[in-house]
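Q: For a teaching handout, I want to show students what a protein-ligand complex looks like in token form. Below are the inputs, and the small molecule is coenzyme a persulfide. Please produce the holo structure.
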Amino acid sequence: MSDRTFLSWPFFEPRHRELAERLDAWCAKNLPVAHDDVDAACRELVAMLGRDGWLKATAVDTANPAPLDVRSLCITRETLARHDGLADFAFAMQGLGTGAISLFGTPEQQQWLAKTRAGKAISAFALSEPRSGSDVAAMDMSATRDGSDYLLTGEKTWISNGGIADLYIVFARTGEAPGAKGLSAFLVPADSAGLTVAERLEVIAPHPLARLAFDKVRVPASALIGKPGEGFKIAMSVLDVFRSTVGAAALGFARRALDESLVRASERELFGAPMAELQMVQGHIADMALDIDAAALLIYRAAWTKDSGAARVTREAAMAKLFATDKAQEVIDRAVQLHGGDGVRKGHIVESLYREIRALRIYEGASDVQKVVIARQALSDFRSR
Ligand code: COS
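A: Here is the structure, written as tokens, with coenzyme a persulfide included.
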């Protein structure tokens, strides 16, 4: 059983504590699922999570609209990640993939949300391109007007759920202005003519990932999310909500690594006593526990700030993601060390955590980008004093 004391922190309401307990029990019963075929596993996970109501937090309920609750998103990701990284992935992408519709969609566009919240449609967020990852404003993909339609042409890559999604939120250059002010967001159904999976991408912790090609993909003007030229701000606003949740997933991986290490240190004998008696082992455990609590404080500070009505939490979310993902990598590395040979043995939970954590320091804004975001804000706050 993981440390649950953080749930009594003042960031939470009783409903969050109840969510954590109920979901943990559900996970213990239903996870992990087999990962041999990641596409099938993700489809199964989305269906299971939707059937049992866990996807409701990922998108707004159009019948009863309320802002996305970032604390619920974080608690859910942390809990799922602790049990099964692919379950966390399946949950998270339903939110990231529909975030632009939840925040800026028309009532017609928001009709998709009933399906994604029920696990009956899979969504994806298509921002990165072969020549534009961290530098979003450098994107090449174009959307040109053709009568009352738009034609989308170009490539998107590193698209999670690419190949299994039913809908893609696609960012493209509409050219109202150079750079960041000339991008727009579109809702593109996966069965649109001219949209193909150009390549499936294999990574160290397998999950559905693809490069997509758009060859004059025609969408009606009603597919435009927000106004022309608002795409960059839409993308950043979605990331403001979901970046803290990436930190929460990392926190779940780190907690699992600590839990496994506590068992190992207590049960494994070394030099005639349990490993836990050795001060060098205690040093690892202390650092792990400290990093986990510090990460949790930053994550739930960011989530609580957003839920309390802050218009932007760019700095808080960047800090939470940066610290939690970088520190989770260190925590998991310590867990590998404490597990000795077992820690690098294929199929061991600690070995899979070691592979799972790495991408979180890259996607949704690499650690380096988070530093840029934090520094820019600190400098701008200083200059406006
Ligand atoms: N919310 C709302 N608006 C935002 C915003 C946010 N979080 N961040 C920036 N903006 C606005 C800015 O205020 C600016 O508008 P004004 O000129 O009207 O003030 C505009 O957007 C451009 O911002 P900026 O000048 O900071 O843009 P840059 O091109 O310098 O990009 C970084 C900044 C690098 C921070 C951005 O491109 C980024 O986050 N990159 C990482 C992208 C990422 O996460 N990729 C992974 C894809 S998902 S796997």
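A: Two things your students might notice: The chain has a mean pLDDT of 97. The radius of gyration is 21 Å.
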